[in-house]
Amino acid sequence: MILGAPGWVPPALALGALALGLVVWSYRGGGARSPIHPAARRAAAVLKLTGIGLLLLWLLEPLVERVHARPGANRLFVLVDDSQSLAIRDRGAALTRAGIGRTRAEEVRELLADDSAWQLRAAQDFDLECSAFDARLRAIAGAGELTFAGTDSALFGALARLARRGATKPVAAILLFSDGIATDAAGEAFDWGSLPPVHPVIVGGAPARDVGIARVEVSQTGFEESPVTVRADVRSAGCAGESLVVELRDERGELVESQVAPAEESQEFRFHAPAEPSGVHLYRIVARIAGDSAPEATGATGATGAREATAANNERWAVVDRGSGPYRVLYVSGRPNWEFKFLRRALEEDPEVELVGLVRIARRQPKFTFRAEADRRNQLWDGFEGRDADAAEQYDEPVLMRLGALRDELELRGGFPRAAEDLFGYHAIVVDDLEAGFFTPDQMALIEQFVGRRGGGFLALGGEQSFVKGGYAGTPLGGLLPVYLDEGTPGFRASSGLPGPARGGYELELTREGWLEPWVRLRSTEDAERARRADLPALRTLNRVAGIKPGAVVLLAAQNVAGAAGDARPALAAQRFGKGRAAALLAGDLWRWDLARDDPARSDLGTTWRQLVRWLVADVPRPVELDLAHDAQTGELRLRIAVRDDSFAAARDARLEVEIVPPEGAHEGEPFALDPLPSATEAGTWEAAFRPRRPGPYRARVRAARADGSELGSDEAGWAFEPAAGEFRRLAPDLELLRDLARRTGGALVDARDLDELVADLARSEVPITDRELDPLWHRWWMLVLALACLCTEWGVRRVQGLP
Prior knowledge:
Strand order of the largest sheet: 17-16-15-18-19-25-24-23-21
Number of helices: 16
């Protein structure tokens, strides 16, 4: 409101003060001959002052300034969520002709009808522009172009694009029709200041009866009984008193395991996948309400069932990568012993592990013969066919026997490998009862590189010629071990080494760290594991060491049966070393467990060896490694392929073949090839990109060959493309996100019933381009009527009270 005649302000104030004084004097307490009621006196005074005030206001010529949007000069963006989450049926929604609740999509279509009152009003005042968004933003002419089949809700990306589009024409506001379930995030760099006021319109409410899988996780361990655990977080709504059925199925759709439990709002189901061979394995997790039929294996479906709010969240995929076997393990021993026998027997039951043994059966035997025919061949081989003078070990060489899964007759022919090309073909090395002097300094350095640079596993077993008595202190192999061997180490005992048989023997107990490592245990529960260990025979020998290195952990401790409680010594210690891992098993006679077992059909020692070896080779790098990375913003899958030669140096001249296997029934049809490009930043690395189209499980296979065509290696990886997973991570509208969005941009959260009022308010608000009008109040007839009514009413009160 402004004044048209501001010069009349002083006279109006003077007249008003005079009128106030006269009214107060005339209605003072004793001024009348017959006093009236105090309430009537006050009412009459107020009425007279009001009437006089309105007449004086006329002198100032008051004007009211009205602001409204200039028709067609400002844009009003209507942004509609076109994703699958709007296909959800809400509890209490109006019923359709079929007798089922309406979906959120049907509610949005009704709100966006061409004849809706709010749209007709908005079209009069604004340049109305409608857009829909899922993974991308697109313009639409009306509700008929909405499909509600999008697998993403890139809300903040759509808002940023609208803000850039508004640079060409002023924008009054954005009307957002969404349930607030966004699959992207604003991020710290999001420019909130570029957005006009955003007014989210609440779409949807509490979901109807529904069950869905919120998250799936896969964990792998060296635990032989259940190496793979699949965990599914299942959420349900409106299912009180009912039961849920959650199934684990393989890639072919065959049932692996099924669990039934009473429905809760949020609960966890754990499945133990079978011990499959190496490679990529795919599993489908299906959740449903007991009594409902199981959905078909369609990957990610957007279909909506009448009995549930949606069926698109009833199944998820789990990808299990069991590695690329077979794994080759090199066992080196200073003498034939029981440990190799039981180790070899245990690994024969594991088709993914190949054990190659190099066992010394005779030491060097220097011999001097005076005036005799020179024959340097060791007579140990006399009588064996095929052992000529050139092939048989000489007197000044140890006699070694090669056993196990040899690739050819030349493997280990010259003894322990002396070149990286020969040693790096193995995944792990096991050294048993062998002195450090057996290895040359170059071989020790090579073993250190095998663990630290190549990433292999190293295990030292206890024996008479191991650890301290084996002379490993101060050598590269001693630095590789997780235990201290140097006599100068604080706490070193003079009796260290391999003691005689302990009185009563040693019992092995799991430490706190050991209980946390599944591959150290043999039973799935703590009680069963303690009961198993109570039946094991005591061990008689143990290598003593000075202590444990920083960063190493003790997984098994040896307790003297006849000793004081708590006087335990390390029995199994492990540590990371470079890219690989190293372990020391200080007990020297684990074979006693198998000799004394009651049940010949169940070998706890065999399981122990298999789990220990599997842990050694679990994370060993391969010559060809395929890594996958998913870009959440673009949906693109990026493949990174690292290729190494026999010495694990970057293979710059390798030739690669990359193949993508799409889901069954995908429109792409058969597997197709990708052309990777060499990385610009890392030698021996290739990169490729792929954008999946159909939801479901995918596989990627890569083969690498040398320039001459000989194979370097291969690898396989798998992933599940489930774009709708983010859409259905929750079913209820995210009102907190919408409310925060409105607050940051200066908008307001709007109920759908208040759309007409919102559009009318927008037309009268401070939009970028407006028209202003001045409306004189003193031309309004009601002002004169109001002033006269006040004066007449005051006169009537005085007359009723008997005043003149």
